[in-house]
Amino acid sequence: MGWMADETGLEKNAANYVPLTPLSWLNRARAVFPDHLAVVYGTHRKTYAEYHERVTRLASALQKLGVQSGDVVATVLPNIPAQAEAHFGVPACGAVLNTINTRLESDTIAYILDHGAAKVVLVDPQFLPVVAQAIEDMVGPAPIVIEVADDQAGVHHIGQYMEYEELLASGDPEFRWIMPQDEWESIALNYTSGTTGRPKGVVYHHRGAYLNAMGQVISWRMALHPRYLTIVPLFHCNGWCHTWMMPALGGTVVCCRDITAKAIFDAIADEGVTHFGGAPIVLNTLVNSPAADRRDFDHIVEVFTAGAPPAPATLAKIEPMGFNITQVYGLTEVYGPATECTWRGEWDHLQGDDRAAIKARQGVAMPIMEHITVVDEKMQQIPMDGKTQGEIVMRGNGVMKGYLKNPKATAEAFAGGYFHTGDIALQHPDTYVQIADRAKDIIISGGENISSVEVEGVLMGHPDVLLCAVVAKPDEKWGEVPCAFVELKDGHDASEADLIAFARQRLAGFKTPKKVVFQELPKTSTGKIQKFELRTIAKTL
Fold it and tell me: Which domains, from first to last, does the chain contain?
């Protein structure tokens, strides 16, 4: 048996075991980096000492409003300092943070407030009308509304409810944070974008938030004092855990309310931004921005992109502008990013389409994920031949606790001891995973599978195309055929025939779009194109 058989007296105790929580990083940062800038937003510039005090006051004030451990506190806020403060202040009073998508309609917000049973909701004045309507439509008790004015953006206090700064003033700066007794305690509740049926409430624990954030420090090769621009909405997987991560490194969160090329270039040039995350549409915005909106900067900006593979044409243009793009992939259920396309030295010589082809992969598991792979219907590993397709599954500490009040959906998601993503992918011989499509986005034409991602990548290479999305259009002969929806660049005028001919030169005939529709594409708040809306249109064509 050896000496390990007798472990008497080697139990966990207060000295050697502390539940993991991102809250501990902000406590440390107050001691280690008290005078370092923590949060920047226009003239709002707070050091770590000030940030910590504001978070403490928020936690105290929420408790005074009657918020108890395990209660839910919701926010309907853009990426402003109060949203960052809520990420620490809400859990610091023992509560669970529910950041709600600011682009949802009142009916869905009413459902979320009811389902999560929010006690308090922090609301930006811009979204007060929709939240007021949602509260009217609620079945259960209404939450207390706190108005969060944003004078920097000219969004002033309407005066109907208590204002956020008034709330903070009511809090005790000496309040003792309620740290988790168990790292499995819930820290956040995030609702998936319900494209079909009601959204599901994804529950995060302190341990997962801590480890996911820590894993990304490694993946992003971060050193001390990064300057992080909040482009990923903080209501989207809690901003991929990046706000929780910043105090670990004494980093600075640079808030960005409205995502425009000018705002991004200004933040890089004026605030020295070193890192940001965003959907490929953000890269597209930068590549196609007018010269007047651009600024010179002399450092490389590290970018995590996710949501769809960046088009080769976009990558080829953006990297020489001073951006290093790494594709990551994840879902709400896994705290944001879970895989990364880790770059290898042997690829350094690759240029153009060859370089883009590697960067379009979703890659390998991040350090904190135990195992991510692709399996068939019987949960067997698919051949890693770059051709065979299966479903991406994952297991590890960065997977949600489950869906709130929905044990059936939770059990289905975790069948066989893995989280099932519903994403269809292939695996290359080097184990790198590459998404072929969402299961629902694959087009099956005459029995042949067509990847909408592949067709979109080709069309994005056309010089006149700004954005495109390809969906299935019902067809009497083939069952369904590819239909492309395209936004052209300003002043460009490619025709349907031009784009079909362009695609036909680069794709097999059956993969070529049979119809091209020119219109603005419907997008989510994170810039993902809403294909379900386009599928509805395609059925009428």
Answer: 47-211 (3.40.50.12780), 259-439 (3.40.50.12780), 442-538 (3.30.300.30)
